[in-house]
Specification:
heterotrimer, A alpha+beta, B mainly alpha, C mainly alpha, B: MetI-like fold, 2 domains, 2 strands, C: MetI-like fold, globular
């Protein structure tokens, strides 16, 4: 079941829309959902909005769909302000988290719903809906009702329905979060392939970092109603701009260190370049390192004490307790894991890779 | 000491075995036995009596369909049709108004209003009957508070007429509808409205193409439930002495207590059987609808 | 997050109109009843209310109704709770049987039911006068405590009690509760009383209240069998004391309402079933 787009579905990349959020603010009672959000989605790209729950990512998406209105700020599609356009006249197809299919309509009628609202003739409507069902690989399920379909199939139908009116923007609101792990993986690959073939500008909300990193062209990490960092998945992982991003995306350990010079930190006897987070020279800081960027060597005189190991497949993640009371995680190839039994003394060193620093949290 | 120990050990094992063997249906037996006697016996008696004819002269009894056929003739038929008409009309009005009221309450931002209306509906729907009839007699009856003050009599209004009784019935049917339809309205997912809008539907189109079709089983189910409730109602009509509306429940009561003619008890049983058939039809329509709507709105 | 969907405050005239119409329709008869019960030609009098207690039959009929209600609640719960819990734990074949049995009373209107009951009661003198069953039939028709009404009310309450208990049992995983209690060393009865019943508190209260309301307001069966509990008494005095019958009606509606509100406060309101997006 591969999702492939026929020629007539493809929008030339040049024709894809640009979306821009400008200074969006929205408050619900006392809680601020959006606190001056600025973000541009480039034509034809898939941009993931990633963040913990309550960070405002869904609110931003719903503002583009027209379900929420900003207290101030504006939403632009191709430089046209759409802030006051009602939801049913926005040119944006949306896929919801779950249960959004109309229960009284068959899969085909669900997909054809928008065309019916536009008073498109029955024959044309059915032909177009059949085309879309074919696109999502469910051509044979058109007569089924939502309750007769699996969760994954329901979301495919919802995707077909969202694309039926040839929208300029596709909005995905955690469409995979209600599915089980296996279906989630296949469906996200297929959504990505379809999106690339259609060349449609897509905004994708998720709280699952793996999903965001594996699907998106760019990922915008949100926190408390603002964008913390917006860049490609690789850059986000290897050069996080802030401690929040570093700790939210992937695993990091904190190691006590000191700012040795401007943009140079010293920890565990090594001097490493600092790319994110700033502190005055001489200040005590926490240095944030990824487990694959920590090196271990068996050393009876070493500072570190191995407390546990977790087998991850090719690598094993060793937890080492430092004298200051910090726990550091380090990945070692599994074939070497036997060198680091619990209770063993080890030497911990840092290779010269860029790191992020944060304010000291302990002692 | 030592001799006592093994016994203590053995006892729980044995009793656990016995308990495991005691099947679950044993707990259900008292319930089924009770209903078989208190419900099954009267039901059989009704069925038997409805088909039994007693010769007044000889006292001999025989089976025939005579009671049933006379229960479907003359004044009895008029009463049966009167009941059906009153129930259908008042249930239809209550369905419409109950839907509007429930929607107004469900979408209200005031939690208190919601709670107050739902609890009040619970009281009025279950407790109607006698107090309800007196409240209306006091308000719109011959010497009612509003009758004289608003000159309703001259305007041609009569509480004891068909429409008067409809007005009274609505007082417990509307709350019953509110209780029935509220879960369905709460089951309408926000995503459906948003998905419809997202597909270009206006507010009106959403109601016409999504909300009402999804609610249809619940609305029809609610209607038949209301119909059944109005059809079975006796206390309200009986307490409003002087009503001129022929109703099957009043006929049964009269025949049972021998008010009209002696020896009509078996016709009363036949009329009861007619009612059971109508109510059975109502349930036969209601249950499948209920099942469908709970599948959609679960 | 997506839950916070207050759309911009819109004026919705349709809704206001519906609420106003409902308020008029439901409140005017109540208000008018109060006026009626205190209106004595040209001045206001609360005689109808102050005399209620002293009026003949009031205490007797109310007490009778309450006694009947308590017995009915105890009996219906004793029959239903073990059966429903057992059905949850197993014996699933009987589940649909019980569901049908408990909804049958909805198909037989009270007036038809009482027609059947009075026929059965007549068998006593006609056919059974020489058997011990006759004594039973006479005993349950005792004027001071007509147990036959309890039997009828239990049957009439079955659908409501079934609904309430079924909803309550749906919300808890009885099997796991019992197994957890058993693995902690509780005996079967202990597991039921200590683990299952406390979790059904809301459902039990709900079932009890519905039954109480049913018995207190019941008119058809008791009237046609010739007894005089509360509802029948109100109708019986209405001819001679119209004001008082209205006063009692208003009071009984208000008391029931207050009871229900109290129950809602004690039992905790049902949780909204909507799933958050």
């Amino acid at each position: 079941m591969t999702l492939t787009a026929p020629e007539n579905e493809k929008t030339a990349k040049a024709g894809a829309a640009t979306v821009e959020f400008r200074g969006l603010r929205r408050q619900f009672g006392n809680s601020v959902a959006l606190d001056g959000l600025d973000l541009t989605v480039r034509p034809g790209e898939l941009l993931a909005l990633l963040g913990p729950s309550g960070c405002g990512k869904t609110t931003a998406l719903r503002m583009l769909a027209g379900f929420e209105h900003p207290d101030s700020g504006e939403v632009l599609v191709d430089d046209v302000d759409v802030t006051d356009v009602p939801a049913h006249r926005r040119d944006a197809g949306m896929v919801f988290q779950s249960y959004s299919l109309f229960p009284h309509l068959s899969a085909l009628d669900n997909v054809a719903f928008g065309l019916r609202m536009r008073k498109v003739g029955t024959a044309q409507r059915r032909a177009r809906a059949a085309e879309l069902l074919d696109l999502v690989g469910l051509a044979d399920k058109g007569e089924r009702f939502p309750h007769q379909l699996s969760g994954g199939q329901q979301q495919r139908i919802a995707l077909a329905r969202a694309l039926a009116l040839r929208p300029r923007v596709l909005l995905l609101d955690e469409p995979l979060s209600a599915l089980d792990a296996k279906v989630r993986t296949t469906l996200r690959e297929e959504i990505r392939r379809l999106q690339q073939e259609l060349g449609i500008t897509t905004l994708f909300v998720t709280h699952d970092q793996e999903e965001a990193l594996s699907m998106a062209d760019r990922v915008a990490v949100m926190r408390a109603g603002r964008v913390e960092q917006c860049s490609s998945p690789t850059e986000l992982y290897s050069r996080p701009a802030t401690a929040f991003v570093a700790e939210f995306v992937g695993t990091v350990s904190r190691i006590p260190g000191r700012m040795a010079a401007a943009e140079v930190a010293e920890a565990l006897g090594s001097r490493v370049p600092v790319t994110g987070g700033a502190a005055p020279v001489g200040a005590s800081v926490d240095v944030l390192v990824r487990p694959e960027a920590v090196e271990l060597a068996p050393d009876p005189q070493g500072d570190g004490l191995v407390t546990s190991g977790a087998f991850l497949g090719a690598t094993t993640r060793i937890t080492v307790r430092l004298p200051e009371g910090y726990d550091v995680k380090a990945d070692v190839p599994t074939r070497r894991a036997a060198d680091f039994p619990a209770g063993a003394r080890v030497a911990v060193t840092l290779p010269e890779l860029p790191v992020v620093v944060a304010e000291r949290t302990k002692g | 000491m030592t001799t006592a120990l093994p016994r203590v050990d053995v006892a729980p094992v044995a009793s656990a075995k016995r308990r495991r063997r005691a099947p679950g249906w044993l707990a259900v037996v008292p319930l089924l036995a009770f209903t078989a006697i208190t419900f099954g016996l009267p039901a059989l008696a009704m069925l038997n009596g409805a088909f039994t004819v007693k010769d007044q002269a000889t006292g001999a009894t025989s089976y025939s369909g005579e009671n049933l056929s006379s229960s479907l003739q003359g004044a009895y038929l008029t009463a049966l049709l009167g009941s059906v008409k009153l129930s259908a009309v008042s249930a239809a009005i209550a369905t419409l108004f109950g839907l509007l009221l429930a929607q107004a309450v469900v979408t209200s931002r005031f939690r208190f209003l919601r709670e107050a209306v739902l609890t009040a509906s619970g009281v009025l729907a279950n407790f109607g009957g006698v107090p309800l009839a007196f409240a209306f007699v006091a308000t719109l009856g011959n010497s009612g508070v509003l009758t004289g003050r608003l000159g309703l009599k001259d305007a041609g209004f009569d509480l004891y007429s068909f429409w008067g009784l409809t007005l009274v019935y609505l007082y417990f049917l509307v709350p019953l509808m509110v209780l029935t339809i509220t879960p369905a309205l709460e089951g309408l997912r926000a995503q459906w409205r948003e998905a419809a809008q997202n597909n270009g539907a206006t507010h009106g189109q959403y109601w016409r193409h999504v909300a009402l079709p999804v609610l249809t089983p619940s609305l029809l189910g609610g209607f038949v439930l209301l119909f059944g409730s109005a059809f079975a109602a006796y206390a309200t009509a009986a307490a409003m002495v002087g009503s001129t509306v022929p109703l099957v429940t009043l006929q049964i009561a009269d025949a049972l207590s021998g008010n009209v003619l002696v020896g009509q008890e078996n016709v009363a049983l036949a009329l009861s059987l007619d009612m059971v058939v109508v109510a059975g039809l109502v349930m036969a329509v209601y249950l499948p609808l209920q099942r469908r709507s709970s599948r959609w709105l679960a | 997050m997506a839950r916070l969907t207050f759309s911009r405050t819109r004026v919705r005239p349709g809704r206001g109109l519906v609420l106003a119409a409902a308020a008029v329709y439901f409140l005017v008869p109540l208000a008018a009843s109060v006026v009626f019960s205190v209106d004595s030609g040209d001045h206001v009098t609360f005689g109808a209310y102050s005399q209620i207690l002293g009026t003949e039959g009031f205490t007797d009929s109310l007490l009778l109704s309450l006694e009947l209600a308590v017995t009915t609640i105890v009996l219906v719960l004793l029959l239903m709770v073990p059966a429903m819990v057992a059905l949850r734990l197993g014996a699933s074949k009987l589940r649909s049987v019980v569901a049908v049995v408990c909804s049958l009373p909805l198909v037989v209107p009270p007036i038809a039911f009482v027609a059947g009951i009075s026929t059965v009661l007549k068998w006593g003198p006609e056919y059974l006068s020489r058997t011990p069953l006759f004594q039973t039939i006479v005993a349950i028709q005792n004027e001071n405590y007509p147990f036959v009404l309890v039997l009828a009310y239990v049957v009439m309450a079955l659908p409501f009690v079934y609904q309430a208990l079924d909803a309550g049992l749906r919300a808890v995983d009885v099997r796991t509760l019992v197994e957890a209690a058993r693995s902690c060393g509780a005996s079967w009865p202990q597991a039921l009383v200590r683990a299952v019943l406390p979790n059904l508190r809301g459902a039990l209260l709900n079932a009890s209240f519905l039954t109480l309301a049913l018995v207190l307001g019941e008119f058809t069966v008791s009237h046609l069998l010739g007894y005089q509990p509360f509802a029948v008494w109100i109708v019986d005095i209405s001819g001679a004391q119209a004001q008082m019958s209205v006063a009692v009606s208003v009071l009984s509606l208000l008391v029931t309402w207050v009871l229900l509100l109290a129950l809602a406060a004690v039992g905790g309101r049902r949780t909204p079933s909507r799933t958050a997006p």
